[in-house]
Specification:
heterodimer, A: 268 residues, alpha/beta, Rossmann fold, B: 392 residues, Butyryl-Coa Dehydrogenase, subunit A, domain 1, Butyryl-CoA Dehydrogenase, subunit A, domain 2, Butyryl-CoA Dehydrogenase, subunit A, domain 3, 3 domains, 4-stranded mixed sheet
Chain lengths: 268, 392
């Protein structure tokens, strides 16, 4: 069972984010970079599947030099090896370009036995579009199973088999099954990611990281980056500071005042 | 400028990439797992089993031990880095780890037979079991030669009787053993012969009293233990008979560096909390940190934490290089514990009335700081060691 997990480095989720004045892209230097939280769940799920079914877990990361930190963290958690797509031409890439690069990188694995499953976090905490998993599946021509809160694998001998997920919806969940290989995105309900152990941290040093440029992947630089983006940020404004809330004083009628407030906001 | 070889420079406070990764991992764990839940355990004086279980999963209890015994293949300095990061957020979990590793498992690793190591270390390294070290008695702490607990060989068993006081990790549901120091005879010069013996939990005659009500470290487990004709196999002797005194002196030398790391963590936690508070709390129309009286206080706190860190890094480096480190360990322990008390007092002052409220982390730090000047050698004992080492 060969599993590839796509991971992204993002600005610290809890910090205030800023955009660059020159090109309206995210100012990555302004905040501490961290591994996208949802991707930690994806890595954890891949490691659990490996623990049950054997095989190998590879992380695939597209990002600047500093994203090495995120690659190393994945390896410390127990991932076997990594592919880091690193190219200056990638700056400003949108979701379409990202999915193009990730699919090209996955294509290069065909020589080394391919993959049975691709796992992604269902969204990144910076862009929050949740579209890359679907775009990637489409580009690869594989089934997409998104927003999984539970994943189970029925591996067939000699490759293939099926994957079944519980797909989180607003009302409950749907059970979806597909043949392998397939693309799965996970939500944070799925598991509790492990912390790297010191042994894992030491072992990560010796694990292979394959750095690839756009040329290595056969991707034209015109199709990625700011120039190749199908969407552009025209302008931006910082969010206005939060307004003071309404204070309800209970003078025996607190409950009905709360109900009135909720009704006026159409919550009830 | 001539080229400088990095090996000619002091290492300072820089960590290798691997230790920095470990530090960040423990920092994240302390922030995400310990910080949100520990106050409740502290208030109820309850042992945080779930947190300890997760620390075990991360391999923290096995940090300084080789992989063949279930350890992480790190060293004592790696343990200190983890202790500092935990203590930045909470000292109860930090002392639980410190005592379990440096007092519980370390004597077995250092002095145990191969059988003893194989029997105990894998479960101690995984955090499945905690070990404790029974040295202090109700009538004597620093004066270890005043030991009253006795053990005599009766056939192929030790028969142990006596009482131990203030023993960390000795009464949890997962405590596996207590290593007890006991008088096993008299030396030719009339001094006591002291030996260490492993007593598994639940051995008949070994009673764990209820928890002490403490000023601080309230989510850690501290008990008085009594031994009434406790029988354990003769093979439970740890190391050579009569070497108990020398053994615990060497264990305590190392332990001082770990306690220093705990002190630095607490002192740094005081800085963290004070910066957070001083930049958000407003008085007279501006954040209180805009006032020099507060800003300088916080700057001084950072100076103390940083210098204390350098002291324990140095002591740990000497120890791991196999050089004499007794004086440096005493300096690090003395200085770190005293500045932890100072920083906790100042952080409380920065917080004003809120600092006196138990719900604020600095109140917990204030309560937790004092014991650092007492445990594993009081400040007075440290000064005595330093002075003696200077030939006084």
């Amino acid at each position: 069972m060969n599993i590839v997990v796509c991971v992204k480095q993002v600005p610290d989720t809890w910090s205030e984010k800023r955009l660059n004045d020159e090109d309206n892209t995210l100012d990555r230097a302004a905040t501490d970079p961290v591994m996208n939280e949802m991707d930690e769940y994806a890595v954890e799920e891949a490691l659990r599947i490996k623990e049950m079914h054997g095989g190998e877990v590879t992380v695939l990361c597209m990002g600047p030099d500093a994203a090495t930190e995120t690659v190393r963290k994945s390896l410390s958690m127990g991932v076997d090896k990594a592919i880091h797509v690193l190219d200056e031409g990638l700056h400003g890439s949108d979701a379409l370009a990202t999915s193009l690069v990730l699919s090209a990188a996955l294509g290069t694995l065909a020589d080394s036995g391919g993959f049975d499953l691709v796992v992604l976090g269902s969204e990144s905490s910076d862009a929050r579009m949740s579209v890359v998993p679907a775009m990637l599946a489409e580009r690869l021509g594989l089934p997409q199973l998104t927003f999984a809160k539970e994943v189970s694998i029925d591996a067939a001998d000699g490759g293939g088999g099926t994957v079944t997920i519980k797909r989180l919806t607003d009302d409950g969940y749907q059970v979806i099954e597909a043949s392998l290989p397939a693309v799965v995105s996970v939500v944070e309900k799925i598991n509790e990611p492990r912390y790297p152990s010191f042994k894992g941290i030491m072992a990560a040093k010796k694990k292979p990281v394959d750095t690839k440029s756009l040329a290595d992947l056969g991707v034209e630089s015109a199709d990625v980056g700011l120039g190749g983006a199908w969407s552009a940020v025209e302008s931006f404004e910082t969010a206005p500071p939060r307004q003071a809330g309404t204070i309800v004083t209970d003078e025996g009628d607190g409950a009905s005042k709360l109900a009135e407030f909720l009704a006026s906001k159409k919550f009830i | 400028m001539t080229d400088v070889d990095a090996s000619d420079l002091p290492a300072g406070a820089r960590l290798s990439d691997e230790l920095e990764s470990l530090r960040k991992t423990v920092e994240e764990f302390a922030h995400d797992v310990v910080a949100p839940t520990i106050a409740d355990f502290y208030e109820r004086e309850a042992f945080p089993y779930e947190i300890v279980r997760q620390m075990g999963q991360m391999g923290l209890f096995g940090l300084p031990f080789p992989e063949e015994y279930g350890g992480m293949g790190g060293n004592y300095f790696a343990l200190c880095i983890a202790l500092e990061e935990l203590a930045r957020v909470d000292s109860s979990v930090a002392i639980t780890l410190e005592a379990a590793v440096s007092l519980g498992a370390m004597p077995i690793y250092r002095f145990g037979t191969e059988e003893q190591k194989r029997e105990w270390l894998p479960r101690l390294c995984s955090g499945e079991l905690l070990g404790a070290f029974g040295l202090t008695e109700p009538g004597g702490g620093s004066d270890a030669g005043a030991t009253l607990t006795r053990a005599r060989l009766d056939g192929d068993e030790w028969l142990i009787s006596g009482t131990k006081a203030f023993i960390t990790n000795s009464g949890t549901d997962i405590t596996g053993l207590v290593t007890v120091t006991a008088v096993t005879g008299e030396l030719p010069d009339g001094r006591k012969e002291i030996s260490s013996i492993i007593v598994p939990s639940a051995t008949p005659g070994f009673t764990v009293s209820k928890k002490y009500s403490k000023v601080g470290w309230n989510a850690s487990d501290t008990r008085e233990l009594s031994f009434t004709d406790v029988r354990v196999p003769a093979a439970n002797l740890l190391g050579e008979r009569g070497r108990g005194y020398a053994q615990f002196l060497s264990i305590l030398d190392e332990g001082r560096i770990a306690i220093a790391a705990l002190g630095v963590g607490l002192a740094q936690g005081c800085v963290d909390e004070s910066v957070k508070y001083a930049t958000t709390r407003e008085a007279f129309g501006r954040p209180i940190g805009d006032n020099q009286a507060i800003a300088f206080k916080v700057a001084d706190m950072e100076v103390r934490a940083h210098t204390a860190r350098l002291a324990y890094y140095d002591a740990a480096a000497r120890m791991l290089r196999g050089e004499p480190f007794k004086r440096q360990a005493a300096i690090a322990k003395l200085y770190s514990s005293e500045i932890a008390v100072t920083n906790a007092r100042e952080a409380t002052q920065v917080h004003g009335g809120y600092g006196f409220m138990n719900e604020y982390p600095v109140a917990r730090m204030w309560r937790d700081s004092k014991i650092l000047e007492i445990g594993e050698g009081t400040s007075e004992v440290q000064r005595m060691l330093i002075a003696r080492d200077l030939g006084l």
